[in-house]
Fold this protein.
Amino acid sequence: MPDGDRERAVLQWSIEFEDRERASEHAGRMADPWFGINTECNKALNDETRRAWGTPELYAACEALDLPVLIVDGAEDIRPRSAVDSLERALPRGRRVVLRDAGHLPWVEDPEGFREAVTSVL
C-alpha cells in the first residue's frame, strides 16, 4: 500500500463528523487497524449506486419491504437530507430517529443516542 493512504483516508473521513474538535480522532479510530482501501470494490459500489439511485425500481423495492426498518441519521450529515427523506417515505414500516448533534456516522458521535434508538425497537 502506498505511503500516505491511511493519512489521506483519515483526512477525507474527518469531514463526516459534526464535532470538529474530535473529527480527526474519530476518523483515526476508523482507520485502526489499517486494511487499506479496496478501490475496485469502491468503484463497483459507486457504479451500482449511480445506476440505481432514485429509480422507480429502487423506490418500488423499498415500498415492497414488509418488515420494520429503523433509520438512524445525524442531523448534521453533510450529504443531502433529501436522500434520507425519500428513503423514509418509501419504507412503509420505517421509523426514523434523527440524532441532533451527529453527522454522517451517528453511532460514532452519539453512541448513547444510537444505542437508545436501536434498543427502543428491539
Notes: The chain has a mean pLDDT of 93. The two ends are 41 Å apart (CA to CA). Residues 74 and 102 are 4 Å apart (CA to CA). Residues 55-122 form one domain.
